[in-house]
Amino acid sequence: MVPRYARPEMTAIWSPESRYRIWFEIEALAAEAMGQLGTIPAEDARIIREKGQPRADAISAADIARIDEIERETRHDVIAFLTWMAEGIGDSARFMHQGMTSSDVLDTCLSVQLVRAADLLLADLDLLLAALRRRAEEHKFTPTVGRSHGIHAEPTTFGLKLAGHYAEFARCRARIVAARAEVATCAISGPVGTFASVDPKVEEFVAARLGLQVEPVSTQVIPRDRHAAFFCALAVTASAIERLATEVRHLQRSEVREAEEFFHPGQKGSSAMPHKRNPVLSENLTGLARVVRGYATPALENVALWHERDISHSSVERFVGPDATITLDFALARLTGMMDKLTVYPDRMVANLESLGGVVHSQKVLLALTQAGLSREGAYKAVQRAAMATWTKLAEPGGQSFRDNLLADEEVAGKLDAAALNAAIDPRRDFRHVDTIFARVFGG
Amino acid sequence: MVPRYARPEMTAIWSPESRYRIWFEIEALAAEAMGQLGTIPAEDARIIREKGQPRADAISAADIARIDEIERETRHDVIAFLTWMAEGIGDSARFMHQGMTSSDVLDTCLSVQLVRAADLLLADLDLLLAALRRRAEEHKFTPTVGRSHGIHAEPTTFGLKLAGHYAEFARCRARIVAARAEVATCAISGPVGTFASVDPKVEEFVAARLGLQVEPVSTQVIPRDRHAAFFCALAVTASAIERLATEVRHLQRSEVREAEEFFHPGQKGSSAMPHKRNPVLSENLTGLARVVRGYATPALENVALWHERDISHSSVERFVGPDATITLDFALARLTGMMDKLTVYPDRMVANLESLGGVVHSQKVLLALTQAGLSREGAYKAVQRAAMATWTKLAEPGGQSFRDNLLADEEVAGKLDAAALNAAIDPRRDFRHVDTIFARVFGG
Amino acid sequence: MVPRYARPEMTAIWSPESRYRIWFEIEALAAEAMGQLGTIPAEDARIIREKGQPRADAISAADIARIDEIERETRHDVIAFLTWMAEGIGDSARFMHQGMTSSDVLDTCLSVQLVRAADLLLADLDLLLAALRRRAEEHKFTPTVGRSHGIHAEPTTFGLKLAGHYAEFARCRARIVAARAEVATCAISGPVGTFASVDPKVEEFVAARLGLQVEPVSTQVIPRDRHAAFFCALAVTASAIERLATEVRHLQRSEVREAEEFFHPGQKGSSAMPHKRNPVLSENLTGLARVVRGYATPALENVALWHERDISHSSVERFVGPDATITLDFALARLTGMMDKLTVYPDRMVANLESLGGVVHSQKVLLALTQAGLSREGAYKAVQRAAMATWTKLAEPGGQSFRDNLLADEEVAGKLDAAALNAAIDPRRDFRHVDTIFARVFGG
Amino acid sequence: MVPRYARPEMTAIWSPESRYRIWFEIEALAAEAMGQLGTIPAEDARIIREKGQPRADAISAADIARIDEIERETRHDVIAFLTWMAEGIGDSARFMHQGMTSSDVLDTCLSVQLVRAADLLLADLDLLLAALRRRAEEHKFTPTVGRSHGIHAEPTTFGLKLAGHYAEFARCRARIVAARAEVATCAISGPVGTFASVDPKVEEFVAARLGLQVEPVSTQVIPRDRHAAFFCALAVTASAIERLATEVRHLQRSEVREAEEFFHPGQKGSSAMPHKRNPVLSENLTGLARVVRGYATPALENVALWHERDISHSSVERFVGPDATITLDFALARLTGMMDKLTVYPDRMVANLESLGGVVHSQKVLLALTQAGLSREGAYKAVQRAAMATWTKLAEPGGQSFRDNLLADEEVAGKLDAAALNAAIDPRRDFRHVDTIFARVFGG
Q1: What is the reported pLDDT for B426?
Q2: Where does the record place the Adenylosuccinate lyase C-terminal domain (chains A, B, C, D) (predicted)?
């Protein structure tokens, strides 16, 4: 976790305090279930909650240091925690963790943390979607050039660009919802998952209270294909961030200048060059996307644990769990702010759209010519001829627009007069289905 | 694609013949839609289908060579195909591809291929699930030792092991179903996705006929977050394969020998050592899992295309599309056969289970002692003491079982007599919830 | 391997014919060494070579089918090959492979193949370096704008850009040389690498004849850290390709047009838009780079084989070995051709360089002002003020150049008069050290 | 960075204090060089050093908070640092950073940090190599079974196993040395690397003082292929760690028990099962290896920066730089301690070696039979027959050893009598070349 790329709410999920509180909640709920079942005395379950809850609520840095100290001796984190808890709860503490194994606590805790993290990410995505929708509607009919291969292709609108990103993030949201369900399970099933010493009803009780499902088969651990799928969903979302960030980086480059990240008063673009206004947010997001994406691979490697479990996944998750969720949360929020405040230059968009003399209308002329009876092959050659003449000579003396080059071409002129050509390249044709697309994306 | 790891049905999906047939189907359907809408003459649409269909159906290696030849001149694959089609269809061919762009054909074709591939993978998974269920039920109560960290933990059953893998592959199946839906979209929206020269109704018509959804916003291409999610789902499935393969590799190792891959008559395990019977299938599956998993990263890197599209994803998909699906199909089939014929040695399972003198019952003794009034800490120390004595001295003269060591321990004996100890470690306790777990996995 | 991205010489290294010839060479050399040592009769070693060599030289598709047939029975590739060889060699064949294990043949063969592949890659790099050097010298003083963050920064030369890429590929060449040495080892050490049944002198003999080093400790297999390092070197090279490809893609984009991939007569940029000339080669290279890079991860996962070896690496290498080398070979050759024929537009470079009214000289003015006594902070603000005024208003009525804005600024004008300002932004300053850099890269 | 997996010395390299001290050193050296060259007044350079050095030496948390505060306004880290420095240095500070760009400081600082990190890793590797050598020599002739595919193959020694790992880590050491050289460069070349406003002699001066090479062509940044190669070298080393960790995990598993991680007094293996002694260190190392390996991919993706640079690499490096080096440092130290204290059980090794009735000698019998005149094919079948009989029936009544089964086989007995068989399987044959291998690895 890099503090610079971390926000407090997500970070708090992964703090020791938070973890120990969840551990206590799991242990206390399990004790309550066992108390109801008569596995342990109900009175002791009550005392565990009563004395343990304030201890968990008020856990301090000193307490954590004490737990760490016990862990240094026992070399076992859950035992260290239970020992510390027992120091406050007293004799009833011996009924905590009855028939359970550490992973019952650790894995269920991880589920709770990942579910909370997913909820924050979903909230982040809602804000991002709202910002994208607002900007998309604002620029629904702002003309701009669509580019394939970085080359001007045909007109589109800036709103359509944003609608596409909106749709992509809406899919990411659905993936995070699915990923949340993947990891929202609880296991309280004992050392190899057989419930040999703990009743399955305990698991059901704890799961229900924590808003989780029971894990159908746990084997000391919750199976790691769930977590791998979770981190893959984050990786796809990170890649979607990179796509939008890359778009903004392109739009801001000096030769394009169709949009620009907000430049704060007092901000300095470069220590050397006072003239610089750089798309640093979107570049930063590009890097953060690499980071989050990179965590999918170790998460996938975590799946093939040995037999009922080995603990190799644990160290991986101490990195990947916090780092992937904290970084993605930060990135989504940064992207939202960036898109919210993005300065858009519609005039530059029009200027760029027109800068190649109208060749962006080549397909429409091609179609008009084939409709007028030219073979596809012949029409293609005629239009390519006029387009290349436009492109390569536009800035030179005698250079003329695509339209003029077409009208000067005998083969074209034999099929289309000026009026027919004008009709073919009428810009209103380009945007007549924008409403349809918006309706598909945003509804009705 | 490595022929050794490829099966014909999945391979066929990716053949040039198959691709060109899908291309024709898309073009012919689009022409039919345009014919209905009056964009092109209905008669020409009819001729395109009538003359083109037999050409597509009978496409030969010579035809493919001819298309390749045209591509070498035009350096454009779809134009090469259309030119070749036009050679057979004649004049009506100029109404093919009207207002469309190559990616309309290419991307919708890829959708069709990935959907077909997903269907094969789902069929593979169904066979695997059936095999796993059969073996799980066969060994529902076959006792074996559960191992955490590779160390004997507590008794479980071989059926429970398999039920866990069944549940994991059932989740993988659900993920492939979701992944199939991710990529099951159709785009016929023109050069930058604005439908400037093609009616959205054409897309709706083609999508419906191909069993696809329309892509809400395409930008010449179908957005690649869909494909990234698809290949991630494959990567998770590959990792699940690796987990089961790893289990079999462990079970077959010389010191364990609890299960063994079927050894064919005539098979040779080693060119040097005639005694060898190696788990080569499961090792092979481990490697194939690495391969399939490795394709997730380039697929994720494919998402951030420039502006409305660049073509960098295309070369990646020429590898990843066939290789990931063909390899996973092969791996699933190999795994199914392997599990179907796996030789299981219940006697060895029992022998291993008992080989540590009964220390696998340590938790149950721990619980009995705490129930009998010892502190958790005190009980832990007593049981650890007896277990370590058992473990380290079992094979030595005077070494004795865990049970005997416990009874010889004063602190333990003060709390539990032989009858109480026997009750605590009664093996029937271990499997009393197997039915519950099976019901969770396979239904009541 | 995707045929479209494969060249014959590299592909041939990985053909079955090639592999079986190398296997024979290893077996024949080992027999000759054993013949000299007296482990086997020298006469039989002679016969193995005499009868086996023509069989290996003339190996046909039918032979390969026969070997495959034997493998289907034995399920062991090396035994199948030896059996087929024995059919031609006769009785002496029983002295082949004496005391050896399959991996002695397989791993040493892989070493030979990877060394040959590395040699081709080095030759590819030499051609690329030559092309880059030629173009770098051609454009040593072609002015162009240097861009950080996609934003105009300061003037540089197109030759300097290329010199940087040259230096990067020179480093890649050194890495491939090192990677070649990593994998250039021979193991003939028997089932677990102890030389229990084969004399280490055999390994020394074979290694020397094949131009390899002996592997200090093999354990049936040559350790896979070597191969991982090899594929990592390829991955870095692929990333260097991506960097140059990305540069060309940027230079060709419509708003920049400073360079362009050669456009072949007859080439069609788009099926829909006849005006298109797309940077398809560099985009393709970007994708191929992702593919080659992706193979590093499974190669790294191959390192941790179990005990003296497991065979999980083998299936991975059947993909990664050919695919990574063939694809990288193709990509390097494509890049070389692309750079060789790249169309460069110096006029556009100058036009772009000047398009922002001279703000690219901001640092030099900043320095002149601090030298003239302004505080760094004060100078920065003054220059930023003039630059922003230039940038945002250049195209508007009354917009003026950076130089004019500076002279109109009281604080600046109080420190620098027109002559001093002209001296500060004299473009000759920018390129005075180009010779130094070229000497560093290409030598004095 | 996860504190649990971090050691102080490596962590300190990446602290803000450390970074700012290196920044100051670079700025002060550059100023001194400029003072010598007369670019700035020598007196000011002297003052920069004199007043700045104590400020850098004594940098406190409060100072860092002050720098952060300035950065929040300027949104530029280097400018914030320079502003803070200027607060202490006074007027001469305006001569700091003359003609330089932020990356001159940032990238050269990163080089210094990575070089220091590499030095610590090399020291770690030296300790690991020493431990491995000591244990290898201790167990040079400790017999143990070599296993391929997890199946008993032939005898080897535990010392040979360790010698192989020693050789692998010696290669890793060489790779880290090469990786250190990759990143040991200095760039002080200005905004686009042209030295337009800073003399190349400044770079030479600073590089020499810092023990770095000059970067032949920098383009504002030091090219990232260097860093990618660096992190790949770390990834290979991590994979080597995983291989040794996996070996130990296997050796400790309950059925093998040939070696065991040191179990501390007071250590608890499991919260549930007091009998557990788990190989938690080696499992942990397996996970840490995944983490370090995972950082290679984003480092490779960092190479293709746009034009002269974009800043997307920066956020990646804030994770990867500290996390990969700190985690690898921790892992190497943990591995060293683990190997140093590894409990080895030679008796169990012998017991396992003999547990399959001697079939591990099958190749030697195969060779003896072929030497005695049987065809390879015939000998293979005879030996396989006896081996399978041994293996499958050893534990049953009437089961007998491989030797006895061979002698009872008519075909074998016709070729080899008891004495000849004994000679063939004489265990002294197995280890006669151990000295040779040790000499190859450890020298003479």
Answers
A1: 85
A2: 357-442
Q: How many domains does chain D have?
A: 3
Q: Are residues B107 and B229 in the same domain?
A: yes
Residues of A within 8 A of C255 (CB-CB) are 253, 255-256, 352, 355
pLDDT at A21 over 90: yes
Res. A34: pLDDT tops 90: yes
- Which residue in chain A has the smallest CA separation from B432? A196
Q: How far apart are the first and last CA of chain A?
A: 42
Q: Do C56 and C89 meet the contact criterion of CB atoms below 8 Å apart?
A: no
Closest CB to D163: pick one of C147, C200, C217. Answer: C217
Contacts of C57-66 with C-beta under 8 Å, sequence gap 24+, read: C57/C21, C59/C17, C59/C20, C59/C21, C63/C20, C64/C16, C64/C17, C64/C20
Asked, for residue D438, whether it belongs to a domain, the answer is no
Rounded to a whole number, what is the distance in Å from the CA of B75 to chain C's nearest CA?
A: 5
Give A152's strand partners: A147
Can you tell me the ipTM of this complex? 0.96
B94, B148, B160, B253, best to mutate vs chain A, most A CBs in 10 Å: B148
Which amino acid, one-letter code, is at D390? T
Residues 271-290 of D with CB under 8 A from B: 272-280, 283
Is some CB atom of chain D closer than 8 A to the CB atom of B255? yes
**B335 shares a domain with B364:** no
C310-321 per-position pLDDT tens digit: 999 999 999 999
Q: Residue C435: which residues within 8 A CB-CB, separation 6 or more?
A: none
Lowest mean pLDDT: which of B76-90, B385-399, D91-105?
A: B385-399
Mark yes or no for CB contact D94/C431 under 8 Å: no
- Which residues does residue A260 pair with via DSSP β-bridges, in sequence order? A343
Q: How far apart are CA D63 and CA D186, in angstroms?
A: 27
User: What CATH number is attached to the domain comprising B390?
Assistant: 1.10.40.30
Q: Residue written as tokens 């293609």?
A: A380
Between CA C161 and CA C159 the distance in angstroms is 5
Same domain, A133 and A173: yes
Any idea which residue has 């991986």 for tokens?
A: A316
Contact, C206 vs C188, CB < 8 A?
yes
A119 in the same domain as A68: no
pLDDT exceeds 80 at position B394? no
Q: What is the pTM of this model?
A: 0.97
Same-domain pairing of C240 and C290: yes
Q: Kindly state whether B391 is in contact with chain D, defined as any CB-CB distance less than 8 angstroms.
A: yes
Q: Which tokens in the block code for residue D192?
A: 């686009």
Q: Which residue of B has its CA nearest to A163?
A: B217
Tell me C214's DSSP state.
Answer: E
Judge whether D29 lies within some domain: yes
CATH number of the domain where residue D37 is located: 1.10.275.10
Rounded to whole angstroms, how far apart are CA atoms D105 and D126? 32
pLDDT higher for C359 or D246? D246
Could you tell me if residue C270 is inside a domain?
no
Would the pLDDT of B271 be above 90? no
Is the CB of B102 inside 8 Å of chain C's CB atoms?
A: yes
* Domain span holding position D399: 359-424
User: Rounded to an integer, what distance in angstroms lies between the CA atom of residue B133 and that of residue B111?
Assistant: 32
Neighbours of D363 (CB within 10 A): 29
Based on the fold, state whether residues B169 and B111 are members of the same structural domain.
yes
Do D131 and D243 lie in one domain? The reply is: yes
Handedness of CA A131, A133, A138, A142 (dihedral sign): positive
Q: Which amino acid is at D83?
A: T
State whether residue D97 sits within 8 Å of chain A by CB.
Answer: yes
- Asked whether the beta carbons of C13 and C91 are under 8 A apart, the reply is no
Say if B207 falls within a structural domain.
no
SS3 C244: helix
Collapse the DSSP code of C395 into the 3-class scheme (helix H, G, I; strand E, B; otherwise coil) and give the result.
coil
Please give the pLDDT value at position D107: 98
> C329 and C120 in contact (C-beta within 8 Å)?
yes
